[in-house]
């Protein structure tokens, strides 16, 4: 083939890439409208204690119900929201909804909220979290903030001070998707994280490769650092039995439940607990 001539493969890929970037640009614009129009909704996925089998908390997971395009996955829209900075207002919305929902649940049930590293660029993040807790009336120890390893790789002074202030506030801190990024074990200890969440890619590959050994060593690491360990993506009995045998403290996955609406959380709480908080659980 002639040098300098784009090959058909090249043309194919560039056309494909253009479609992807066009969609991203359109979604970015539609996101602004979607926020004001209330197209974003927080779903909740239950997390269970391995030793007691009891419900411990829910993870807040954002959904975008686009009026024309249907359900758009956070795997697609979160990166767009991060690039455009929209993750900051969206993040506050998730936090507010999650705290308001959790305050109507029984006191021993917590709520976990994912925080993007981009949200730490917001100087007012800690005050915003504090304000949301105050406004909702949720006790800080019921809020668990999930961050990813990239945040701690080379933390800026702003990130360091934000984490220290969050610690003082009394919220819980979880290292999410553990094992998929570049972990700094030293920072894990330095910031006294409460929990490691083992990424579901390891759970999925439990019967293959070295995943089982990797999960075991992550669980022993969590014990050595006096942290809890949650196994994510538990879809069957085998994976649950593994979590139990290896001493994971919590499990989360489709074996128990998929993320659900706040109304379905109310129903699950009634069924699971058989009791309601004074006055009943708001649905
Ligand atoms: P994540 O925080 O690691 O959340 C866990 C993801 O695994 C969720 O996907 C959940 O639905 C999925 N999952 C849980 N159990 C199973 C299982 O047994 N099998 C399978 N196949 N999947 C399972 P989801 O809701 O699509 O969210 C994907 C990612 O998007 C999240 O990963 C998180 O990184 C991000 N995300 C979602 N909501 C938010 C948000 O409000 N803020 C931020 N910053 N990120 C969010
Ligand atoms: Mg998470
Ligand atoms: Mg995760
Ligand atoms: Mg994950």
From TrEMBL:
<protein>
    <recommendedName>
        <fullName>GGDEF-domain containing protein</fullName>
    </recommendedName>
</protein>
<keyword id="KW-1133">Transmembrane helix</keyword>
<keyword id="KW-0472">Membrane</keyword>
<feature type="domain" description="EAL">
    <location>
        <begin position="24"/>
        <end position="273"/>
    </location>
</feature>
<keyword id="KW-0812">Transmembrane</keyword>
């Amino acid at each position: 083939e002639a040098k300098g001539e784009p090959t058909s493969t090249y043309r194919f890929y560039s056309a494909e890439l253009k479609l992807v970037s066009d969609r991203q640009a359109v979604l970015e614009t539609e996101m602004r409208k979607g926020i004001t129009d209330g197209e974003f909704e927080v779903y909740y996925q239950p997390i269970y204690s391995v030793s007691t089998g009891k419900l411990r908390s829910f993870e807040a997971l954002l959904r975008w119900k686009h009026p024309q395009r249907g359900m758009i996955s956070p795997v697609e829209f979160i990166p767009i929201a991060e690039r455009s900075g929209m993750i900051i207002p969206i993040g506050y919305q998730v936090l507010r909804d999650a705290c308001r929902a959790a305050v109507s649940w029984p006191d021993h049930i917590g709520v976990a909220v994912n925080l993007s590293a981009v949200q730490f660029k917001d100087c007012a993040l800690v005050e915003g979290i504090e304000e949301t807790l105050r406004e909702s009336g949720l006790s800080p120890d019921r809020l668990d903030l999930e961050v990813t390893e990239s945040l701690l790789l080379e933390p800026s002074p702003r990130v360091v001070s934000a984490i220290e202030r969050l610690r003082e506030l009394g919220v819980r801190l979880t290292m999410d998707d553990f094992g998929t990024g570049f972990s700094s074990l030293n920072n894990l200890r330095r910031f006294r994280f409460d929990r490691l969440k083992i990424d579901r890619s390891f759970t999925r590959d439990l019967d293959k490769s070295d995943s089982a050994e990797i999960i075991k060593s992550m669980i022993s690491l969590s014990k050595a650092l006096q942290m809890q360990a949650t196994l994510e993506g538990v879809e069957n009995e085998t994976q649950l039995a593994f979590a139990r045998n290896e001493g994971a403290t919590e499990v989360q996955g489709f074996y128990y439940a998929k993320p659900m609406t706040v109304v379905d959380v109310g129903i699950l709480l009634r069924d699971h607990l058989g009791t309601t908080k004074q006055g009943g659980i708001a649905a």
